Amino acid sequence: MGMESYELGQSGEDLAASYLTKQGYHIIERNFRSRRGEIDLIAYDCDFLVFIEVKNYSGRSFSSPYVSIDQNKRASLIHAAKTYLLRKKIKNINCRFDALIIFRRQQGLAIVDLYKNAFTL
């Protein structure tokens, strides 16, 4: 990943965290890593512990960002979420996986789409 991609990813996660906070989410962790994957953001939304995948795309993208959360990506997110729950000794809590898609347009405009419960186990 080049520096431009890294910076785009970081700015996307910052925008996502800000957007989610305005939606009532309480961000508790960023960039949690396990051996098989990474979760961009972890937050509470009411009674749910939410694992959030952030997809940040520029105007140059040709396919739907949501498509990039394929079966392999889902498996790595699920593994990382289970690892998080084990490490933090969290039990008996409602969890879900959300996807936050950012479409960057010219002139610095960004469109944010939030998909609550984007996929299930």
Note the topology.
Elements: H1 3-22, E1 26-33, E2 38-45, E3 48-57, H2 71-87, E4 94-104, E5 110-119
Parallel strand pairs: 3-4
Antiparallel strand pairs: 1-2, 2-3, 4-5
Describe this structure as you would to a colleague.
This protein is an alpha+beta fold and 121 residues long. The protein has one domain: Trna Endonuclease, Chain: A, domain 1 (3-Layer(aba) Sandwich). It has helices at residues 3-22, 71-87, and strands at residues 26-33, 38-45, 48-57, 94-104, 110-119. Strands 1-2-3-4-5 form a 5-stranded mixed beta sheet, with helices on both faces.
List keywords for this structure.
121 residues; alpha+beta; Trna Endonuclease, Chain: A, domain 1; 31% helix
As laid out across the biggest beta sheet, the strand order is 1-2-3-4-5
Distance between the termini: 29 Å
Main β-sheet description: 5 strands, mixed
Parts with pLDDT < 50 across at least 5 consecutive residues: none
Relative strand content: 35-45%
**Number of helical stretches of at least 4 residues:** 2
Under the CATH scheme, which architecture would be assigned? Answer: 3-Layer(aba) Sandwich
Give the topology string: H per helix, E per strand.
HEEEHEE
What would CATH call the class? Alpha Beta
Arithmetic mean pLDDT: 87
Number of domains: 1
- Structural category: alpha+beta
DSSP strand tally: 5
What is the radius of gyration computed over CA atoms, rounded to a whole number of angstroms? 14 Å
